[in-house]
Amino acid sequence: MFKVTFAFEDGSVVETYANEGDNLLEIAREANVAIDAPCSGNGACGKCRVQLKCGELNTKKTLHISDEEFQNGWRLACMSKITADVEVLVPDIASAYKSRMKVADLSSKEELAIFENAKREVELAGIELKNSLDIVEVKMEPPTLDDTMPDVERLTRALRKFMNLKRVRIPYAVLRKLPDVLRESNFTVKCVLRTTPDDMFVYDVFDSREEVVIGGLAVDIGTTTVSAVLINMETGEILAKSSAGNGQIRFGADVINRIIEAEKPGGRERLQDAVIKETINPMIHEMCRSAHFPEKQIYRMCVASNTTMNHLFAGINADPLRMEPYIPAFFKTNSMFASDIGIDINQDAHIIIAPNIGSYVGGDITAGTLVSMIWNRPEFSLFIDLGTNGELVFGNSDFMMSCACSAGPAFEGGDISCGMRATDGAIEACTIDKETMEPSYKIVGEPGTKPVGLCGSGIIDVISELFSAGIINPKGKFIREGRRIRHDKYGMGGYVIAFEEEAGSSKDVEITEVDIDNFIRAKGAIFSAIRTMLSSLDFDVSMIDDVYVAGGIGSGINMRNAVRIGMFPDIPLEKFHYIGNSSLSGAYLMLLSTPAEKKTYELAANMTYMELSTVPTYMDEFVGACFIPHTDSSLFPSAE
Amino acid sequence: MFKVTFAFEDGSVVETYANEGDNLLEIAREANVAIDAPCSGNGACGKCRVQLKCGELNTKKTLHISDEEFQNGWRLACMSKITADVEVLVPDIASAYKSRMKVADLSSKEELAIFENAKREVELAGIELKNSLDIVEVKMEPPTLDDTMPDVERLTRALRKFMNLKRVRIPYAVLRKLPDVLRESNFTVKCVLRTTPDDMFVYDVFDSREEVVIGGLAVDIGTTTVSAVLINMETGEILAKSSAGNGQIRFGADVINRIIEAEKPGGRERLQDAVIKETINPMIHEMCRSAHFPEKQIYRMCVASNTTMNHLFAGINADPLRMEPYIPAFFKTNSMFASDIGIDINQDAHIIIAPNIGSYVGGDITAGTLVSMIWNRPEFSLFIDLGTNGELVFGNSDFMMSCACSAGPAFEGGDISCGMRATDGAIEACTIDKETMEPSYKIVGEPGTKPVGLCGSGIIDVISELFSAGIINPKGKFIREGRRIRHDKYGMGGYVIAFEEEAGSSKDVEITEVDIDNFIRAKGAIFSAIRTMLSSLDFDVSMIDDVYVAGGIGSGINMRNAVRIGMFPDIPLEKFHYIGNSSLSGAYLMLLSTPAEKKTYELAANMTYMELSTVPTYMDEFVGACFIPHTDSSLFPSAE
């Protein structure tokens, strides 16, 4: 056994032991040391860099480490094997891309608009915003020597009288506190109930003098980003909102790498812990702190996420999702409770999961479809969710078809050297002067915020403007020179949007040919998926009445530029609508409204799934779409 | 802070810290050091002896410690306060009375007879031995690219087809293992189900090639002793049987002291841990080991116990039980599961609790009443449960009345210097020669087992024989002399049944005047309760048709002697029937048979409770009964 020491920039260390030949990245994961490895350790991404401080490693050298860097001790952890006692420095990986948890400022109307819109739209469609949770006040006669009825029977009798219902269920958590609460309150209590036509479940009991708000939690578990809102289940009010990087990201950037990681010994637990203990629970605590809300008073949770994410969240074998015939463990599940999987809310809280419709179209899309309202109109609409996977739903009130394509994390700033989510410091819009090649940009945050990186909408603008200015060619290669244009030693170009001295980070904010290439593949995947699905239905893009775009790409998305670079079809711009994180707003609706929850199950049951990889023309479409805007420029008449 | 070291006879030590003036017994309890203190620390019982090894203690001297013993360092922990660093020896308190866990030998027919009898009797009364648990084999078509239904939906569909029922509930524990089991079994599985008219709950799923037995656990939680059986829920077969001292005993011998202890900070958790983690869970593991049975395949548990014991078991505030108006938290509770309270069986196992009917008549009595069958006959019968509390039920198929009296633990060997439970080495029967005063006795266990102590039935015999031989007077005082008669320095007499050299323990097996006095009070409580209850109904003992005696007193109980000492009324001996631990056999029936469970709820609902302490004549009756056989000897004509 050799001793392996991971040292961090803040001076802390983690020590563990390993055998000769063990892989350093694996050891780090087992020791719960976060090392960024989007490719999941096959040497492809070059992100798992560590610096050798003492001892030695047997490292296979790759192009990701220059000779000089190698000289200075830099190694890829995934390519390194243990041969002796060793100490390595793990650089601070809390990049803007994987930015830390953020609790939203609810005074900003923009933060709340998507929930307000979503509520208004479903109400207009006749869906009532009503759920089965309720608070009732119950006054009982205190017991006497002549009336010695026990506490449980006394409360049950009082509730039955009140609600005229047969069966009352008092769970252990309530039984345990009941004698104390009844006596403190002199037998006048508030009960938090779930009532259905045949029974009543008592979630909680309080002294009637206490203010009680029924809390609910809606969570969107994205492959890259997790977002959540804490709500008042009676009014629908948003009490707190938060987002954070999905802690699973160190096990791989995409779902396939995570599934593979989950199948290693102890992997399911590690992946489940990463999303629950390291991501969701801290978000819950932060939101509850900011809203002064007790965790135990959150009585229901709704999760919307892709199929892999909800399987890993539940700690369930996800391997069959990636193996023919690609079978999920569940579409719907109705028997999961907070205590089952260690969510830090009321232990009896039901966990509702937005239904999956296939291995690659999950609850994020069914919840998002609910919000898109495309199911409520006779006109044909297209719903596009730009996540790490891109998913599309096309249809109307009569039919809906869905498909998924692997876009990668570029829309959320992943796989882009200066990419970040649409949070403070992100460049969300940009223009470039055709003559001087100087940029003007708009930054997320307070006036005066300095640029830190590029979010999805910013990247679209930069690429579109670079192309319009003739700085890059249709393949995304740099073809002009200037003070903002750079070339690395391999000749790969780059454009500096903000020099270090103007930027809010310690380096230039720039976009490189590699970034552009990654982004072109992402937008190509989306565009070719749209074309393939429509063709298979004998539809044409001209027949699309409305396009609803969702995802973390940023509300600043310039649809004209998105069309110009060939990401979206060339149809009138007024047809495009950005609807934000519809997975989260859909989860919010399902949480708040039982009819909305039922509607989502109904939509899921009626949605057809199309497997793109089985369509022979898809690959041709994709190759054609990997240009700016496309190899067939007649598809983009407005760009000319 | 001072350092307090508890040293044990096996050489181990426990170290903790305390403040000046802290009570040594309290410190021991907080440090989880078991020191016997039946009186719960008020100096009354003299059992919490420890020996000072180093340092000093500020101890109030009591009569329990002689001058010589004090000289040798002996102190009562409950009377000692911390004044300095100290080390004390904690003597091995694993006395025969609090004997260690024992797994029964099931080849002994006697062990199983009470369960066989109980089953036969209820079946004769028309109660079916059927519960809602079942195993079914389900064969599914494996998924294909053309049939991509998820696992949960596939199983649900197959079960619905099979059982023609609407709602199928698949809990998290099954969801989690389902993808693996389905694939290992090639989609042919065995399901453990609970089926009710409207739904089906899937407890577990196995490869169909596995042998699966549905396990159930019946537990009698006595104040002094806990007994349990592990059973096959399909056949009712007893797979293992075990008993152990209730780990709560170090917090007090009776229910009142335990309730007081539970109300101290952290007390509920300590009392709950003592009975679950320290007592029941180890019994489960031992039984499962002996039966080669997996804990997780125990899908239901039934607990019968007095009201205080089931409150403390559930970790619920029991204080209202002992305070006017004496209100339990529950009579019935139907929403407790193994995972709620940390019972080491299947996490979804339902915990059925035999119903209480009052603060002092609990589920042990309702379960025992079921077994006694007194509810099934027109004749009037009396059911007596001799536990730490004595409880009586009198009635027939038309009405039943119950009451409780505080008998103390004497019937199970508690409060008796050489008392023990009816296990190996216990003297269970005894005669004493009137001339020579020499005893002959019968010992529980293999032939040749040496005497260790006296169980309840042995104590009855010894007292009856001492009285018949004129060795003790009606007050229990020694009035003859001889080689087996002893007197201590206060003049208190004693009788040696087995001298050290004949005994299986390191000291004489004897009975003292203090023991006899304790026992007379216990039997007096029972007799006076019988008289008081019957008088209140205008009944007379002659109207009792049958008497069913239950409890851990031992199957060797000699009813003639029990009558002779004035414990039971003087009616024909053939009317008495010893039915063993009816709390356990009742729990067994409720576990095995849903109709028996329902019958018990019905019995409980129809049973009237009489509070003896509110009957003005009870105390007079008790005082009169604290003689051998009674101050009114006309009540015992056969004894003359």
TrEMBL record, chains A, B:
InterPro entries: 2Fe-2S_ferredoxin-like_sf, 2Fe-2S_ferredoxin-type, Beta-grasp_dom_sf, Corrinoid_activation_enz, Raco-like_middle, Raco-like_middle_sf, RACo_C, RACo_linker. It comes from Blautia caecimuris. It comes from the Bacteria. This is Uncharacterized 2Fe-2S/4Fe-4S cluster protein (DUF4445 family). Residues 2-94 form the 2Fe-2S ferredoxin-type domain.
